[in-house]
Structures are given as C-alpha cells and as structure tokens.
Amino acid sequence: MSTLYLVVAIAEAAVAALLTVRLGLGPTTCDRIVALNALTTQAMLALLFFAAYADRTGYLDAALWPASFGYLGTIIWARYLERGLL
Hints:
Layout: H1 2-25, H2 29-54, H3 58-83
Helix pairs in contact: 1-2, 2-3
C-alpha cells in the first residue's frame, strides 16, 4: 500500500509541474490565478500522500499551510480583479 502512496505523490508532483507551465503561459490573469490555486492544491496533495508513504506526521502541517494560504490568496486576487484594481 505504501508504494501506491509514493506513485500517487509522484503523479501529483507531475501535475503540479504541468500547472507551473500553465501559470507561466496563461493568456489572462484569471487563467494564472486558477493555475496558482490548482498548483497549491496539487502540491498539498503530493505532500499528504508523501506523508502517508513516509509515515511522518510532520509533513501534514507543511501541507496544510500552503493550502490555506493558497485559497486565501485566490480570494484576494479575485477581489482585486472584481474591483478593477489590476
């Protein structure tokens, strides 16, 4: 079962790498914001599955912080876009 966790963590990291390309090439600001939000989610999932693989609980805290700040950052960017400040 732990091998499955490692395979899923590597797959999530690969998806995060593809989202990094989308973040750089996004034609609009909205596309980049969505890519950044998805990137933080994929990075969190990769860390969670790696924590399950390594049987370490310390990685759980490291996964939850970026996820919460990524969500908060998406809300802040959306507010700026809504008000026309960008």
